[in-house]
Predict the 3D structure of the following.
Amino acid sequence: MLSPGHSDAQTHIKIYTIEEFDKNGKQVPLSSANLDLLSYLEKSLNLRFEVHRVPWKRAMDNALKSDSVLMGMSPTKARMRKYVLSDAINANGNWLITRCDASFRFNDINDLHGKLIGVMLGTTAGDEFDEQINVLFTVENDTGAGVSRLRKLLLKRMDALVWYGMTSDPKEVQAQINRSYRSSTGDANGQKDLFCVLPKPISVVTNHFAMRISRENAQLMARFNQAMSKGRKSGAIPSLNAASMQR
């Protein structure tokens, strides 16, 4: 990557973020909020982004091997030793999804004792959750995102799965998940919810841009921070709270 300093020529930067697919296996586009943010940063910082959608673990591995940017990393103690992060892009709740005929109480991490929980490979639901994997409970790692994970849950291959939702309302998350599943089966007008969202999230985490640690990359993340702060103050991009509510 070229130097992150200002110049007349555009700096080209690879951005890696998680891939998602619809019911037909077609890649789901980035959200309008994320596209608007990238466009704003390109114009503000005279950059040109080359966006790659890949499985999240591969994205993290790629960023450690090159001066590329990750979009959507949640901080953990382990990650902070390897990556420099920007200020928060948005925040999301890590919700537990169960089959409605096999729901259970969740008040704290101990309620997951002995359960098998579906997670996206390479993602985090917070340090407390991550530290209890294969200690208090076990996990089923998914490489795909979206409806395919719900099908696995319906087939009783796990007790629950972690769903990453950009909203603070579990009822809204539940309605969206069931709509998506009904649409994938051709039963868009179905009334019965098959999937239930437990009222309390495992955690609420912020999502960030990130790069492998170096002086130059820290400088680039600082430029991202300055631009995002200016854009939020001017209204050019949504405030963090507003952005957190968009899917």
